[in-house]
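Example is below:
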Amino acid sequence: MCNKVFNTKPELHVNTFISEMVAQFRQSAQQKAGSSSSEQQVSKPGEVPCDVCTGTKLKALKSCLVCLVSYCETHLEPHLTMSGLKRHQLIDPVENLEGRMCTKHDKPLELFCKTDQTCVCMLCSVLDHKMHDVVPLKEEYEEKKVELGKTEAEIQQMIQKRRLKIQEIKHSVDLSEEDADREIAEGVQVFTSLKESVERGLNEFINTIKEKQKTTEKQAEAFIKELEQEISELMKRSTESKLIT
């Protein structure tokens, strides 16, 4: 509110700055209202919605650290065209804009203290962090972005190396499997040949024993026959001897 005391009622004048801002805002909104919903994307879960949109929330294009409001393309227009709003700091759309404000000084956290590794506002930089290494938040962001890019490249390189290692291991396993199959086939062939050789030897051994047994039986039969013949002759002689006496 204005604290100036007037003796007489002052003549009221239109605030040209506010009037101009409202007029441009309305004109811009009217021109784009019909096409905004079709040309711009509706905010999806996980995306930052426009805080000004009523009804269907469109996807926010930028967030203002001064207004603490996120704007879609249509509602962002005044910040791009009006001199009073052009000085506002715009960033990529983020949620929880209140968390981007310094709780101590109620100022935007637009600086970064490298010494304490924390975001600070302009007053913090000249009071609590006066002797610290303080840089613009965007500068720190770009620096971190480059570092993260290098880290991401290194990580991707490490991933690629490990994927190549996996391929090498799989190839080694395939070769090992081929070697194992070949060794099994060779082993089966060797043991099959050995088994056949043993079976042949066993059969020859059995046949030899059987032949020996047959020979022994024939010899025994011949010997028994000879003995039986001798017995017959002896019995005949014995009978003749008894008749003489």
Remarks:
- The first strand starts at residue 62 and ends at 64.
